[in-house]
Amino acid sequence: MNQPINEPLWIGLDLGTQSVRALAVNAAGDVRGAGTRKLTSHRNGPRHEQDPEQWWTAVSEAASEALHGLERCNVGGVAVDATSGTILLADQRGTPVTPGLMYDDGRAGAETDRVNATGAHVWDELGYKRMQTPWALPKLLWLLNDPATPSTGTRLLHQSDFINERLTGHMVPTDLSSALKTGAHLITEQWPEDVFESLGVPLAMLPSLVRSGTRIGAVSAAAARVTGIPEGTPVISGATDGCAAQLGAGALSVGSWNSVLGTTLILKGVTRNLIQDPLGVVYSHKSPDGDWLPGGASSTGAGVISRDFPGKDLNVLEGLARTREPSPLLTYPLVSSGERFPFAAPAARGFTLGTSADEGDRYAAALQGVAFIERLCFDYLDLLGAPTDGNLVLTGGATKSSYWNQLRADVLGRAVTLPQNAEPALGMAVLAASPDRDTADVAAEMVKVREVIEPRPQATGKFDDSYLRLITELEQRGWLDPTAAEHAIKRTNA
After folding, report:
1. Domain assignment of residue 204, given as a range
2. 287 and 170: one domain?
3. What tens digit of pLDDT does each residue of 51-99 get?
4. Going by DSSP bridges, is the β-strand pair 215-218/265-269 parallel, antiparallel, or unpaired?
């Protein structure tokens, strides 16, 4: 396809665990160029590290590939997302002095206890109640306690900060999204100085804070030579990969939600006010426009399909599942031990109740069980006062199954939307085009809808009895809070 001369483009850069993805996108959301490069990890037990220099090499090559042949276009901005909680320490020039500690590095257990005891008043105010071991602040303490870490002159950089400094050639502020797991106070939009002073973390080593979507510099001549991104292109503060995916899905208006069904199930939405969850299973990022982005991650998901039906012809099983509505079995399909959302139950284990006639019953029960937990998530969000009546966008690998998409719409009793492209890199292109504009408006222009699925009229109420049985079972096992169970039952019977 011939590219229009001087066509405005925006660049989105996505740093995932296994690869870097770059997209060049026009104002209508059309992808004009794309590039990908692999990343390698170093794992050993709880240790998970990557080489920051490899991040920059991969970004440079992926961006160059995406922009190949687009020299006549006008690049309006570039934004970067990265894995949440991934950090490193660097010297004053931005040269790494530690490896990148990845989002799931689990070596900071002792530091986590100290972080939670010291910052409890802040974590409670922000709604997530306590930090987890892989979060950035415990890992920062671990690095500072590591004898191999230089004792002076170091700075904290999030993964996206490192790339932004390479793009601009100077120090940059970090975005509030990336800084959440480092302890940023998202209400005041400042670092909680008392917490860091009590922990012995020098405030001078922390970057300043800005909202996602803020201009933080411009591409330098040196960066332009290796990335192909024109010198002077505005560099816009980005977000975590999860928030980038929500941006790419276009779920940015208050009451809208993005349900990501991959190996596990993740829900992210938009609220005007900060949601306070007494269980701490729902916590919120801050949107570029100042709204809140609550979300939660369940341990159910499509991972149960690959685990429980290895090597099976899923098309055949799906055909059988269509005739088992509802399945005679009741399944709580946990991918791993313990549940995180819509309730916190470390002791939870998956189960199946009833007697099956064949594998079709088991497959149908697994698909329906995931849909039931998704419905329970929305019932719990409603209990917390979160608006859930906006657009519901489905993304993730499970959306390849048209039947499962329809089943989820039926169980939820609402229309669902499938976007053409919900890549995090697209979300960063949206953010790169958003300065001085409402991000939701930009997303409405750039995120294309593939399909809208309405619930089937004949499915109304079909799955209610099975859903209520699952709620009762979860409550009886002591995993689901009685108040949450009662609210879900009332909504079903309304």
Report:
1. 8-242
2. no
3. 999 999 999 999 999 999 998 889 999 999 999 999 999 999 999 999 9
4. unpaired
